[in-house]
Structure formats: C-alpha cells, structure tokens
Amino acid sequence: MVIGGGSAGISCATRASSLGAKVCLIERKNLGGTCVNRGCVPKKLMWEAGRVWKDARELETVGIAPNLGPFDLQALKTRISDKIEAIRESYASSLEDAGVTVLRADAELLDDKQVRVKGRILSAKNIVLATGGSPILLDIPGKDLLSTSRDVFEWTEIPKSLLVIGGGYIGCEFASIFRALGSDVCIVDAGDRLLEQFDEVAVGHAQDILTARGIKVRLSVEPTSLSKTAGKITVEFDSGPAEAVTHVLCAVGRSPNIDELGPVTESMERAENGALKVTDRLETSASGIYAIGDAADRLPLTPVATRDGEALADILFGEGARLVDLDLVSSATFLYPPIAQVGETESGTAFDGITTPLPSGVLSAETIEVYGKINSDSATGQLKGAVLIGHSAADEIAWIASCLAAGGRSEDLTKATAVHPTLAEEVVGRR
Amino acid sequence: MVIGGGSAGISCATRASSLGAKVCLIERKNLGGTCVNRGCVPKKLMWEAGRVWKDARELETVGIAPNLGPFDLQALKTRISDKIEAIRESYASSLEDAGVTVLRADAELLDDKQVRVKGRILSAKNIVLATGGSPILLDIPGKDLLSTSRDVFEWTEIPKSLLVIGGGYIGCEFASIFRALGSDVCIVDAGDRLLEQFDEVAVGHAQDILTARGIKVRLSVEPTSLSKTAGKITVEFDSGPAEAVTHVLCAVGRSPNIDELGPVTESMERAENGALKVTDRLETSASGIYAIGDAADRLPLTPVATRDGEALADILFGEGARLVDLDLVSSATFLYPPIAQVGETESGTAFDGITTPLPSGVLSAETIEVYGKINSDSATGQLKGAVLIGHSAADEIAWIASCLAAGGRSEDLTKATAVHPTLAEEVVGRR
C-alpha cells in the first residue's frame, strides 16, 4: 500500500506491480505530487517563458527587437495547466496499465499493516509513505496575506511588486521568474546569505547576478507583521524599512507531510526537518513501514524520489537494490542563468574561472558575469565536486557527476576539448 | 615568424614570446581570423539572436506574447561589429603586451627561412603557417550571384527567401539562423545526407527538426547555373525544379589558404582537402616550416587551432608538448537545438533515447523531438562516444568528452543523478 501519488509513490507502485506485487496507491488530490502540479514542471515552464521574455526584452533594450508588446500571463497559465493535465492523465494510464489500484482519498495510518481510507480499513503487508511535503507558513500577524509556492501558479496577473520571504532555491527562482516578467522584486532572508545548499563563493556571484538583474536583496532581516492598505501589502521587519508591495511570497522552507497520517507517526523517528529517518532499505523506525520521497530523510529532489521508489520496489519484491549515491546527485536552482552543483566544492584545490558569456553585453545592455569552480584533490587530482553558473549549468552538471562517478581527474578535463564558443570551454581543454 | 593572425597564429605567437622567443606575426587583414571576424563569434551571436527571436515568435504563436513587432537586423549587425572590434583590439594589446611584432601585410614564402613582406625579405629560424582557410566557390554559370559565409554578415536585410547550397555545418547553421529570423529557406546538397561529419542516425533526427522548423531540404541535387531576373535569383539544378530566391549562400566547403603563399608551397605534402600534412611536432614536409590551424591537416576547429598553436610554441621553445587527442575533441553544429558529438558513435552498443524537451509543445505550437545516443563497448561498458541533440548539447558534449578521457563506463552514468527537469536526465541516472 503506497500512500501518496507523487514522483516517489508512482514509481514505487508501478515497479512493484511489474514485479508481481498487488499494489494499491492512495492519493488525496491529484496524481503527480508537488513536482508535476506545483513544483518542477510548472516552475520550469514559467522559468523558460521568463527566459524567453527576458532575452527578448534585452533585445528590445539594445534596439534589435524595438517593439515587443505585452506578455499574457493568462495564456501561459492555460498552456501550463493543459500540460499538467496531460501528465496526470499519462500517470493515471500507466498506473492502470501496470495493474495498480488507485484510490482518491485521505489516508490514516493505523499501524504497520492497516490504513483507514474513507471509513474503511484496508490492510497490506508493506506500507509505503510517499506523502511529500508542503510549504511552511510563517506564523506572524497578517500571515493570511502570504502566498506560497502553491499559490503562485494561481496568480491572475504578474505582480507589480513582489516581496519574497526566504532566499532558498524556491524563493530565488520565483524572484528571478517574476523579475523577468517585469515585477519589481525584493528578496529578504533571515540568514546572512542566499541559497544555503550551494557553494558560498558561487552564491556570492549568483547574488551579484540577481542584483544586476534589478532584484533587491536584504539579508539578516526577519518579517514581523503584514498588513493591507489600499491594494498594497505592507511588511514590517525586525530592522530596516518596511516594504509595501502587491504580492508577498513566503518561501521559508518545506516540511514533510507526516502528521496528517495520524497519531501513529508520533512515535516514528524523525530528522530535524521532520522527515522520517530511514534505513538503507528505506524502512522507517516502525518495522514494515517504509518512506520515500520528501517524507523520507533523504534529499528532497524528484530524481531521488523516483529512484528511491524504484529501489524500494526492488528491495521488497525484486532482487534488492543499492540506493542512489547522494554524493553524486546534481542539484540546480533556476536563476538566469542557473546555478548547479554536485559533490564537495568548499575545500580542496579549486579551479576558479569567472567569465563572460558571449551574448552577454552584445544582445543585452549589461554584461552578466558567470562562474565555474571545479574542486579536485590537490595530491591526486581526483575530481571531488563542481559548481557552475551558466545558461546550461543544470544540464552540464549531470555529466560532471558522471565524471565524478568515473573517478575522473582534473587532467581528464585538460585532455578533452570543448566546442567554441561555449561556457564549457572555459574549463574543459584548459591547462 | 608566424604567418596569419587568427586563433592558431595568435596563440602560438603569444606563447612563443612568453617562452623567450623573438616573434613576428604577419596578418594581411584583421586580427582574429575567421573565428572572430566571419566565423564562430559573429555566427554564435546571430544564432543567439535567432534563438531568442524564434522562441519569442513561438510565444507569439501560442498567444503568450501576442504582439512582437519587427526584428532590426541592422541594429544586430552594429552590436556584433562593435564586439568584433573589441576582440580585435584585445588581441592587438595582448600581442603587444607579449612583445610580439605585428606586421599588417601579405606574405610570400620564399624558403624555410625567408618571407617577403611589402617588398622586404625577412628571415627567421622557424616559420609557422597559420593562414587559415576560405570558402570554396562553385564554378558554374552565374557564380557571381553566390554569397559565401563571408558575405552573410554584410547582408543589409533578412533574406525574403534563401537557398543554401551545401548541407554541411555552415550551410545548416545559416539556414537555421535565417529561418529563425523569418526567411523562407531551402537547403540543397549534392550528397544523400546532411552534416556528413555527424552520426548518421542523429542527423536523420536533425533533418526532421530542420523540416519541422519549415526548412525545405533537397538531397542528391546539384546546381548547374544561376541567373538574375526582377530582383530574384533563379537557380537551376541537374534534376528537379528550379528555385527562385532573393539570396543564395554557397557553403560547399572550405579550403586552406596555402597557394597564395607562393610557389614554394607547391612541393609541400598536402592532404586531400589541400591542407598541409604535419608530423606530431606540427612540422610540414618542408623541414623548419610548421603549420597550425586550418592550414594544417588536423581538425579545422578553433579550439584545436588554439591548442596546437600553444603546443607548437612549447615544442619549439619550451619543454615539448603532446598534441591534443583528436578523438576527445567535441564538435557541434548550432541548429535549434544544436547537435554535438564526440568520439565514435556509429558502432558498439548504443543507448538510444528520443525525448521531448519540456517547453516544446507548451511554449510553442509544435513539439520538437530531440535525441541522444551514448556509445559504449558492449563487453566492458567503456564509453566510446556520444551524440546529442538538445538546447545545451554544445556545452554538455565537453563534459562527456571529459568522461571519455577519464575512461568512464556506462555504469558511471547510472550511478550519477541529473537535475529534473533537464534533457541530461534522459541519459544520466537511468538504468
């Protein structure tokens, strides 16, 4: 019995069924989870649209496309909704084809064998929690005026002015997207830096890029209250001036959806962020109950969820599986351009290369400086990690992860030759 | 003495000077050679502008940016010229800073020690030919009506209709760029396929993409004559109907600039395309005369030219050098999206994955299918080569080349995990 029909649950259910298991999947709302319905997929589509629009606006600024006209957010939203609906339907058919029973309902976990669904008690030998996560809401006066990453996709107009609370990847991505679509944007963060999961030096460059794009960044500042007057939301802080904006996005983190499964979960071992601790068989501290995806204390990323879902099916019904090596997992934040990272980047001997991509400053008024760092062991040259900022960083990083997996050394980057003109040539083929 | 101030000559001269040699560089026109003045750099900038415009037009087609206005080619040309001028100037200063004497003149090679420049005879212990290459012109009636890749950057308007003769990388790139800017485009080729240097199966997909973008492709057909009537150029062929267009681009290949160096070159050993054969010390069959860049029988690519230029300086004045491994050189053709390749792709066990990138069909009316193939040894899993078609293929391929250099195996691609949603995830992190 799989509770949750997102990336993790669907991949686990489909594979378990293909291995001969009798599988029931319970989903309280839409198939596809956060990724498809209010995460990766609509975000990437908005990011792509924002990229095209930003690039076109830059051509306008330098006189190459002098007369652009408006951007129709509603038309974009319709195209995105249609795509999401198509993905949901394809998931529904593949689950059906695989012979998985899908129930649309809330689920309450009763013990390691039983779940209550619509008042009925269902039992299964193995229970898999794949319930995902949800945005955390700040608990301050006026919190009803906050939007979350769920709400962003429902906005009916491009914000005239947007305050983003939280400079993590979600906050920085929506700040970038709405700035590209024309909003005045300010990001505030309680900490002293943005994008905590990424290399500190690289994030410094990323912050410069955000600033160059016209996004205001305020660090070490916490909102204390929100209030609404005459169509604007005023946000007060523990220090510094208030901000008066049309929209406020709260992006202070996400928390696993565990508690709503019922009191049984209270005794299960949790990580600091509330995710369920799991063994290398993805079993929680409650024997017979497994967790995958954002509900588990792994990495809250779709590819990890999908691969862990498959691995769990192989562990329970197939020939076993080794879990994904989290040190070889690529991650990215879709700024303009994106920042992407794999492995360890903070220590060791680093190659630093700051460069200016070719179209920048030619097809745009400003010059945007990008960045790359390859970390390798100073004694052996063995590659340990990399961080890139560049238009195709999110794709390139996967191949760098593959180089790490292959035990590549910095000399291997020198032996290879890149295409000219690309950003990769600033690193590959250099001595 | 270095004859030719393009990528190869400049890198050789600068490095040789830094190693203590007394260096003179002779350039008959502008510093930067084909790459900077009428190749990689202006082409990539036009390609980037075309990409933005194509993407914006697609948003227009689906109603997201409903009212785009015109594209100003003249404004683009001015921005590109300014950039080229800046690069030329930076080359001039770095040569000056390095202590290289630069002469602006034609050069005639007299023997392995002497060169005639502006009527004076100069001599040097080592002579380096870095004279680059030029477009080949078809010798058919009406050939004066042909433009080449040199002329394209001088065009004062976007062609209403464009016939491209030659389906190699230059022909396919300009066909794609001008199609993106609004031209009606037809590519003809005498052979039975496009892009001969690229993997045949991948090129089949690339041709489907060109066709989906509205480019007409006619294979196994040779132009026999051109004539002009009422503002149009009519091109007749050995079979099939004539084409009447406003512009004709001849892109049937490039030939090394050797003969204009004088009769001394007649006795030097040549490859089939006319390039000078060189040893692994980059020496021609005439002892003491060296060749680098497109003048040499290596790969006619800027990064190879640059690296060979440096290597030659190291061989002559430093501690020697091993030449770039040509099996690890990435190459790409900038279509929308680009195709990129490294290593051997035709044989062995191939991973085939045809996929649809996320924005395609959502932010555009049509769905464009892209393609990827990883070739690995069927027994050992050792990676042998790859070909990709995708928006960031030209950057990604360099890291795949690095994986090849590292002796990576197909299992290493499985161990790594990619970012979602990207194209790289269709290969990296799959079983």
Tell me about this structure:
Two copies of one chain form a homodimer. The first copy, chain A, has 431 residues and is an alpha/beta fold. Chain A has three domains: 2-135 and 255-326, FAD/NAD(P)-binding domain (3-Layer(bba) Sandwich); 143-252, FAD/NAD(P)-binding domain (3-Layer(bba) Sandwich); 337-426, FAD/NAD-linked reductase, C-terminal dimerisation domain (Enolase-like, domain 1, 2-Layer Sandwich), CATH 3.30.390.30. Chain A has ten helices and 22 strands. The first copy, chain A, has helices spanning 7-18, 33-38, 40-61, 73-98, 149-152, 169-180, 200-212, 302-317, 393-405, 410-415; strands spanning 2-3, 24-27, 101-104, 107-109, 114-117, 120-123, 127-129, 133-135, 161-165, 184-188, 216-218, 223-229, 232-237, 243-245, 247-250, 254-256, 289-291, 331-333, 339-343, 349-355, 370-376, 383-389. In chain A, the strands form six sheets. A five-stranded parallel sheet of chain A has the order 3-2-1-7-17, with helices on one face. In chain A, strands 18-19-22-21-20 form a five-stranded antiparallel sheet, with helices on both faces. In chain A, a hairpin with a 5-residue loop joins strand 13 and strand 14 (243-245). In chain A, helix 1 runs parallel beside helix 8 (302-317), helix 3 (40-61) packs antiparallel against helix 4 and helix 3 (40-61) packs across helix 6 (169-180). Chain A starts with a strand and ends in a 16-residue tail after the last helix. Chains A and B meet through helix 3, helix 4, helix 8, helix 9 and helix 10 of A and helix 3, helix 4, helix 8, helix 9 and helix 10 of B.
